[in-house]
Amino acid sequence: MNGRLKLRIRRASNKRLGGPMPWVVAIMVALMVMIASAGMALSNLARTSEADLSGSLTVQIMEAAEYLRDREAAAAMSVLEERDDIAQLRRVSDRELRDMLEPWLGDLGEGGANVPIPALIDARLAVPLSEARLAQIRQSVIEAAPSARVEAQSTWLAPVLRAVSALQYYALGLVALLGVTTAAAVWLAARSAMAANRDTIEVVHLLGGTDDQVVRLFQKPVVRDAALGGAVGFILGGGLTLLMARQFAALDSGLVASGRLGVADWAVIASIPLAAVALAALTARISVMSVLRGIR
Amino acid sequence: MNAGRDPIVRFDNVGLRYGTDREVLSDLNFALLPDSFYFLTGPSGAGKTSLLRLLYLAQKPSRGIISMFGENAGLLPRKALPPLRRRIGVVFQDFRLIDHLSVFDNVALPLRIGRIAEEELRESVSDMLDWVGLGHRAEAHPAVLSGGEQQRVAIARAVIARPEVLVADEPTGNVDPAMGRKLIRLFEALNRLGTTVVVATHDRTLQKEVSVAHMMKLDRGRLTIAEPAA
Ligand SMILES: Nc1ncnc2c1ncn2[C@@H]1O[C@H](COP(=O)(O)OP(=O)(O)OP(=O)(O)O)[C@@H](O)[C@H]1O
Ligand SMILES: [Mg+2]
């Protein structure tokens, strides 16, 4: 009935804090949580942006003379309006364009009217944009507006999205490295607990304790330390992540909002401290068994 | 008188060497009978502790066969050894008390390993501590006890679970003659209850205390056994 071996082991170092193990685990888990959530936010952002952008295209009218430009823009608009694969169509006003360009080109105000800026048309498609469809739209727009440049928005952003994807793998690599480092730290802590308690292991073993009894004796404090560290690290890392998320949400930008973490993402993040605890239990077991096998 | 009964322990052509040194124990052939009392004597370095380590399954022989409770210990899987060890009580020559546990917890250890419930073990541990005269030191830690007191804790731990075999390595080396005699009475009492007792000791007066004892004599790794004088 009383399956547990009621027996304390001597802590490897500082008795009050249970050694540095919980703190190492806490820091590692916090870092992993933050990096993993950043990575997943980037991944979400890349995925939703790609889906958004692949359904839209831009037409720029490059004609320098303003009256020709307006004529070509109107012609392009009417060509696009007639197509039933275009769901939404909008001419970006010159005012908006000037505002957008101002940070780069300075105030273009009325006096800057001689700086030519292209006319810009945003179109959202009703169907996915294939290469063939893009080429066909481009051809019909250019027939009506010779200086038009027709591009899918995804082609603009493709390099950016590729860079974002690369960042995901970078984050994954960091999390893996931190995981290995955590394992090493737990391993060292378990080994030093082992060394400090070698006499206890031997005596319990010689008095007929089973391998499992001895293992559990050591797993308990190691797992408790890891659980403490994991909880603190999760609260720390998760808290900072939520804080960051609120900062970004305050930007109220569609692109940033698309990086929001979902329930599944949080489940993955929550599994990080649990994995740390499982790792500690496994590590403790392996190091105790290696001592036991050396005895007989 | 015990002849004809199955031995509880059997050594057949057992030899032991540490590393690549010459054999510390050679050609051991003997059987320990149930309910019997054995003294193991011999000069320092003769191999008494080594023989006892083989007996309590802390050590594998380099050659030969050791049977415990009718089983060939050398052929048993690792998992089968703990239950055998629980049938053997050991007083280590260097006590091997766990010094961050109280005297009470040290003595309770074999019962806890045997999964005896807390309520059940409390009384037997207290009784045992009273018996070895340490009832008042139950909460003390071994480090603050005298050598003789530590030895009595070690003995209490060895006998608390009523082992079938009791192996004691110089169990009275640190106590005065009166306490030594008292402890030997404890071993005798256990022996009468059916425990096979093996005591390694240099103490000749102690050897005379137990009239029914077989005398095992080790000299340079070789063993001879004399039947009880009585
Ligand atoms: N772990 C070991 N490694 C190597 N040699 C050992 C080991 N243990 C004991 N020996 C050697 O084996 C021999 C017998 O030692 P053992 O401890 O069995 O003698 P003993 O009869 O118990 O002596 P004492 O009466 O002093 O306790 C000694 O020569 C000792 O040096
Ligand atoms: Mg010895």
UniProtKB/TrEMBL annotation, chain A:
This is Cell division protein. It comes from the Bacteria. The chain crosses the membrane at residues 21-42, 169-190, 226-246, 266-288. One of its GO terms (biological process) is cell division. Keywords: Cell cycle, Cell division, Membrane, Transmembrane, Transmembrane helix. One of its GO terms (cellular component) is cell division site. InterPro entries: FtsX (IPR004513). It comes from Altericroceibacterium endophyticum.
From TrEMBL, chain B:
GO terms for biological process: cell division. One of its GO terms (molecular function) is ATP binding. Pfam families: ABC_tran. The keyword Mitochondrion does not apply. Keywords: ATP-binding, Cell cycle, Cell division, Cell membrane, Membrane, Nucleotide-binding. GO terms for cellular component: plasma membrane. Residues 9-228 form the ABC transporter domain. Its main location: membrane. It comes from the Bacteria. It is found in: Cell inner membrane; Cell membrane. It is a peripheral membrane protein. Coiled coil: none annotated. Part of the ABC transporter FtsEX involved in cellular division. Important for assembly or stability of the septal ring. Belongs to the ABC transporter superfamily. Homodimer. Forms a membrane-associated complex with FtsX. NCBIfam families: FtsE. This is Cell division ATP-binding protein FtsE. It comes from Altericroceibacterium endophyticum.
